[in-house]
Amino acid sequence: MAKPTTDKTDKSKNVAAEPEYPLTTMAVVAPLVGWLIPGGGHILLKRYGRGVLLMVSVASMFLIGLGMQGRIYQPNGGDILDILGFVGDVGSGALYFLARIMDWGNVMAANAAADYGKTFLIVAGLLNFIAAADAHHIALGKKP
Amino acid sequence: MTISLSHFSAAVVFALFASIVFGITQRNSTMEQVKYGLYCFALFVGGVFLAGWVMALIRR
Questions:
Q1: I want to staple B5 with a disulfide (CB 3.0 to 4.6 A). Which of A43, A50, A75, B9 is the partner?
Q2: Mutate to test the interface with A, among B4, B6, B13, B21 (most CBs of A within 10 A)
Q3: ipTM exceeding 0.85?
Q4: B-chain residue closest to A51, CA distance
């Protein structure tokens, strides 16, 4: 009998086995710490240099954004763009909550610098989300 | 405290910090991270100059 040309079982054997990365406690804790304290996840995983650089970068962007009279979004904005702005802002973790507690960024300045400041604040949070995901990958062992 | 940055200096500061985070998070070894960070920074700043020239030409 002729051998079928498309043998699915043979094909699956040829594919290299994907290494498994079991979910550990550190893989959950590190990104959470990294979100709350920018760079904290990397520092927790003993990547001190990377952690400090991430902390300085995210915190500087956040503080420069505040200094440029950028607006801090609140969770109950109502408008969809306000909600997206809040998601970006809250990525900065403790910095966001500190700003809310201290009532920083509660301005409605209508100038170009304030618009850039608002962007700095949102992007600082989004970059911190990427850093937290990176800490997760390091804790899993996917990244050295 | 109020910080007043020009459009260009704000873009360069933005590029610097975003490139640092991209470099660290998107590559594995230290040398690759430095190279990728510099690459991102060059693209950001190059993009600023390109967009600036495009806007200047449109304005004429």
A1: B9
A2: B21
A3: yes
A4: B24
